[in-house]
C-alpha cells in the first residue's frame, strides 16, 4: 500500500482552499476495516473513500471518517468521481456502497472536472419534539428562531441527518455548540450530521453541518446531507419537482462550497460539484 494509492482532493469547489477535503484511496482490493480506519485517521480529513478495483466502471466504495465508518459520504463521492475521471476518463461509474449502488457521472468541461452522484431512494420522518428540544439546547438556540415552514425532520439519502431551518441568516452565522452532548444525542438517534439551514430564496439555501460523530466540529460541504434535504423537500411537498436548488456551505469556515442539487419527480437525488487536487 503506497502513497500512489492515495489521492487528496477538495470537493464542491474549483479552489483547493475552498470546499471539503477528502482522501480517495484506489487499489486492487479494499484493505481490511482496521487498515481503512487507520489510513483515514492518518489522512486527517473528515472522510476518506476507499475504492476497488483500479479499473472498470463498476467498483466497490467504502467511507471512513476520522473515528468511524460511515454509510455514505457525498463530498468523498464527488472527489472519487473526479479522481476516477482523471485516471480513467469520463463516464458513469457505478459505485457499490453499503447503502446500495450510487451512480456517478463524470465529465470534463471547460478545463474542469465535474461529478454528479445519484443518491439511493430518499425518505424522511418528522423529528420528535424531544430530539429537537435536546439538540437546540446543545446549540444554545431557541425554538422561536426556527423557520417552521420547513419543519424539523430526520432526512435520509444514504445516511440520516437532522434538518433544522432558521428564519434569519444571523442565527446561522453564529455556531458554538457543546461537542460531546451533541455527539451523544446524534449517536443515540442514528444521525450522521445536523443540517442547519437558512433559505435565502426558493432556489438558494445556506447550510452548516456539525459532524461530531465523525470527530469533526463542522463539515464545509456535505453532499449526503444535500441529497437528504432535496429528498425531504420533495417528499414533504415543500418544493415542486422536478426542481433544482443550490446550497452554499463552508462560508463561515473560510472554505466556501457550492452544491447543486437536482430534484427529479421521483427516485434518487442528484448532487453535483467540482473537485480539485490538493
Describe this structure in words.
- The structure is a single chain.
- The chain has about 280 residues and is α+β, with helices and mostly antiparallel strands.
- The chain has a domain at about 5-120: Diaminopimelate Epimerase, Chain A, domain 1 (Roll).
- The protein is built from six helices and 17 strands.
- It has an eight-stranded mixed β-barrel.
- It is globular and about 50 Å long.
- The mean pLDDT is about 95.
Q: Give the helix/strand class.
A: alpha+beta
How large is the share of residues in beta strands?
35-45%
Shape: globular
Could you give the order of strands across the largest sheet?
Answer: 1-2-3-4-6-7-8-17
| Largest sheet properties | 8 strands, mixed, barrel
Which fold name is given in CATH as the topology of one domain?
A: Diaminopimelate Epimerase, Chain A, domain 1
SSE diagram, text form:
Blueprint: E1 6-11, E2 20-26, H1 33-43, E3 47-52, E4 58-65, E5 69-70, H2 74-88, E6 91-97, E7 100-109, E8 112-118, E9 123-126, H3 129-139, E10 153-156, E11 160-166, H4 169-173, H5 179-189, E12 193-199, E13 204-211, E14 216-219, H6 223-235, E15 243-249, E16 257-263, E17 270-277
Parallel strand pairs: 2-3, 4-6, 11-12, 13-15
Antiparallel strand pairs: 1-2, 1-17, 3-4, 4-5, 6-7, 7-8, 8-17, 9-10, 10-11, 12-13, 13-14, 15-16, 16-17
Helix pairs in contact: 2-6, 3-5
Summarize the structure.
This protein has 278 residues and is α+β, with helices and mostly antiparallel strands.
Amino acid at each position: 500500500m503506497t502513497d500512489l494509492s492515495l489521492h487528496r482532493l477538495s470537493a464542491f469547489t474549483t479552489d483547493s482552499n475552498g470546499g471539503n477535503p477528502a482522501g480517495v484511496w484506489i487499489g486492487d482490493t479494499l484493505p481490511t476495516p482496521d487498515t481503512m480506519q487507520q489510513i483515514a485517521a492518518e489522512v486527517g480529513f473528515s472522510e476518506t473513500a476507499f475504492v476497488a478495483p483500479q479499473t472498470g466502471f463498476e467498483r466497490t466504495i467504502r467511507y471512513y471518517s476520522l473515528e468511524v465508518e460511515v454509510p455514505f459520504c457525498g463530498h468523498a463521492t464527488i472527489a472519487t468521481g473526479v479522481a476516477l475521471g482523471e485516471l480513467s476518463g469520463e463516464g458513469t461509474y457505478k459505485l457499490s456502497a453499503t447503502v446500495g449502488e450510487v451512480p456517478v457521472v463524470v465529465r470534463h468541461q471547460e478545463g474542469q472536472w465535474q461529478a454528479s452522484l445519484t443518491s439511493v431512494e430518499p425518505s424522511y420522518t418528522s423529528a420528535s419534539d424531544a430530539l429537537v428540544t435536546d439538540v437546540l439546547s446543545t446549540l444554545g438556540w431557541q425554538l422561536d428562531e426556527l423557520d417552521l415552514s420547513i419543519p424539523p425532520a430526520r432526512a435520509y439519502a444514504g445516511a440520516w441527518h437532522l434538518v433544522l431551518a432558521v428564519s434569519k441568516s444571523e442565527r446561522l452565522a453564529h455556531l458554538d455548540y457543546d461537542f460531546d452532548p451533541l455527539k451523544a444525542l446524534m449517536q443515540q438517534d442514528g444521525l450522521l450530521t445536523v443540517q442547519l439551514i437558512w433559505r435565502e430564496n426558493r432556489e438558494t439555501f445556506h447550510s452548516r453541518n456539525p459532524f461530531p460523530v465523525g470527530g469533526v466540529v463542522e463539515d464545509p460541504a456535505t453532499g449526503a446531507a444535500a441529497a437528504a434535504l432535496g429528498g425531504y423537500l420533495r417528499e414533504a411537498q415543500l418544493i415542486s419537482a422536478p426542481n433544482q436548488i443550490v446550497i452554499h456551505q463552508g462560508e463561515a469556515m473560510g472554505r466556501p462550497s457550492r452544491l447543486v442539487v437536482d430534484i427529479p419527480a421521483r427516485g434518487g437525488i442528484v448532487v453535483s460539484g467540482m473537485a480539485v487536487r490538493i
